[in-house]
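INPUT
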Amino acid sequence: MPAELRQEQSPGSQASLATMPEAPEVLEETVTVEEDPGTPTSHVSIVTSEDGTTRRTETKVTKTVKTVTTRTVRQVPVGPDGLPLLDGGPPLGPFADGPLDRHFLLRGGGPAATLSRAYLSSGGSFTDGPEPRDVPSYGSLSRGLGVRPARGALCPGPVDGCFTLPGRREAFPAGPEPVPPAGRSQPERFQAEPYGLEDDTRSLAADDEGGPELEPDYGTATRRRPECGRGLRSRAYEDVADDGGELMEERPPFPAATAPLAQPERGSLGSLDRVVRRSPSVDSARKEPRWRDPELPEVLAMLRHPVDPVKANAAAYLQHLCFENEGVKRRVRQLRGLPLLVALLDHPRAEVRRRACGALRNLSYGRDTDNKAAIRDCGGVPALVRLLRAARDNEVRELVTGTLWNLSSYEPLKMVIIDHGLQTLTHEVIVPHSGWEREPNEDSKPRDAEWTTVFKNTSGCLRNVSSDGAEARRRLRECEGLVDALLHALQSAVGRKDTDNKSVENCVCIMRNLSYHVHKEVPGADRYQEAEPGPPGGAAGSQRRRRDDAGCFGGKKAKGKKDGEMDRNFDTLDLPKRTEAAKGFELLYQPEVVRLYLSLLTESRNFNTLEAAAGALQNLSAGNWMWATYIRATVRKERGLPVLVELLQSETDKVVRAVAIALRNLSLDRRNKDLIGSYAMAELVRNVRNAQAPSRPGARLEEDTVVAVLNTIHEIVSDSLDNARSLLQARGVPALVALGAASQSVREAKAASHVLQTVWSYKELRGALQKDGWTKARFQSAAATAKGPKGAPSPGGFDDSTLPLVDKSLDGEKPGSRDVIPMEALGPDGYSTVDRRERRARGSDPTGEASEKEPLKPDPGRKVPPGPSRPAVRLVDAVGDAKPQPVDSWV
Amino acid sequence: MSYIPGQPVTAVVQRVEIHKLRQGENLILGFSIGGGIDQDPSQNPFSEDKTDKGIYVTRVSEGGPAEIAGLQIGDKIMQVNGWDMTMVTHDQARKRLTKRSEEVVRLLVTRQSLQKAVQRSMLS
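OUTPUT
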């Protein structure tokens, strides 16, 4: 699934930032993949027979969009009653025609017409007829291989496996068609027949020699195969032109095994063919009656047709048309098709509801958000939720939740989904599928979670909405049973060692998001607050701040000491006694979750899951409250630090970043700091070295990651002589100097120089440094040049100030290059306090964000300059990357 | 205060004379600047024209020399001691303000309220 990643940009200053960088909430995640039509669409076509009579037939076309199956389907003529006339006679009247063929070929169905007839007779839907529905010829056209494994029956559900692999289309030479049999699932059906137009289709069809690519996870899997239809369309013409239909004979026999289980679509491709088929050359070549595909307005009109199967088929066909076709999706919206579909969600007939939902799913997918908005505008969200509550059929539930997942990626819809759907999704899907029991039954052992597609879709949807800001987080936290169920599901995943799947990823991301700012947002949080007063009002506060300004060191030392004292109190880690088990959101920060996250970090190989678990730990240890202190200590006691250190070796940027910031937060605990300093230093330095001189091209770490690592190093060497010594021993100084000098990014250079300054401030180490050849001047100049580029980064606000980079004691460089001059003499209200206040209010640190995909909404507490709002989060997108960060300088 | 390339810029300005304050080894003025031709003008909250790359005052510390002299937040600095500040990089601007040899800087600054006040007085 394409992930929409955007990250929040955090305020620039590093070191002086609030000591607890937090992981911003995760951003939103990908939307579901557009699903492909699997449902057979019924294709209504008008057939004009040779003798002039016109017949309307409805063809059920299975949309197997995926591939163009070139099936050389021999069309088995089907009589009006839908039963194929297996007389092997002439091609199906009108249907046997090329157009039809093509479609069928594609879909692997028999002549479209016949199919349709068959379908029609069965009430218009393939429904889960356990056996291939019609005759062998059709039968073989089972619904694509891709049919979700979950559904055993050949239900004409979304056909996943379109056999023909579009990919090969290009291979078609102009001459005799090699014709990949694509989808023909049953060889016996096909008998190459010299049907004029069949060839075309065949040629169109992509080869499916490789067998269809099954998408087992139909629900949200991306349909990788290019839309058959399109390919088909493009090809048809050329093929037709070329071949004039002679190909048939030349076609090599289809390999029987293209798709052993593939059920050929039942003729759904026929519609494609038809589309293609419009080519006059083709039509003119035949004398048989032809029909044409209904145009989009007609399809939409059919959605209002009194006959229910017509509605269902129309919806299915619509789904097929929309697959991966943004233009059609737009047109549907313009023609006001969306309200029609939403209305059908409440239709009494199950089939209609299912098809409509499938169509909505496709329509809601894609970059274009207008459709999503339109669905919201016509009340789609409540309708979907209603359908979810009412439906027992798994496929419908998958479709509904898939659609909701798609919709949830659109920011304005997130709250809407929460409002209408949170309770239902939690109670109908999450809680049942997670295995959690509200009243635990002592006798039975805890149930395992079921990793169903519905659960995956729902967890994905909740993942997206959980990134919507504080209010969303609050609602999710307070939703009864949600946190409990998610935790239970994760526990069971760890227990079964099944931690790489998408559902687990979604659940951990939700947990991470909900852990964000938990120290501020849960009710009763202030009971647990400790240490610093929140608002920087008091004299003590400002005093502390002023000391910070005085230099990098003074203030830090004061703060460090204070924290150290506090930590000592909790060395014994006596947790508050609980009279009853924690439940609901309280579970988010109980020390028990630490073990869970650490297990995930140890076992999972899914990068997103790793990042999210590290992010959750980062968030939890970033509070200024009692629970955070416990969590930090618990991580240590559960031997979590080595786990994190090992993940620093990961090759994935975002994992390294999340882990580095988690370590940084964890090092607020004194004992952790010492341990991390000893064990993690080598890895951190290695990352710095890689950043500056990547061992392999393309292995270069992203800027944000490097800055995160540097900040972590800075945090651990501050106020800890031993750690600074470890840094020297790990040969960190040359690496930092080199990075500062060579780096293109101002932020990296700045962070590096910050570390260097901190190191230099330890007088005890100067001797060692000088022995290594670092003179004060060289050190300073390294630090200075690192700051050289004056575009000191202050991401975000125009008026963010730059860090006080120069300490007076270190001042050896030319005057005038000072960035910041603390205004101590002028009182505590100097800029620094403003900054601190701002920064604290934001509570997030640029490097402290383990975010995901959506831009985090600007914190309301933050002083946001009027004018352009905060740029989107930087990690992925870096919209503003090209432009220099706004800086301001004190003069 | 919109800038038309090639045309002389006209603005109503106020003269501000700032006497730098000595703080230890440094001479400070007590305000913070933002902008410059190497900066991103769209981030400027004070400018009327978001393509204006001039130097703006983004913060003024209370009680500092700048505030005493009458500098206000949001002012655009047009000149410093005769040196132009409308087409300079951020760094150049900073340097022009922080020359150690000068204890007093005379700025020409402009702001929206000045412009409006003059217009109003002209109308009436």
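end of record. The longest strand of chain A covers residues 40-48.
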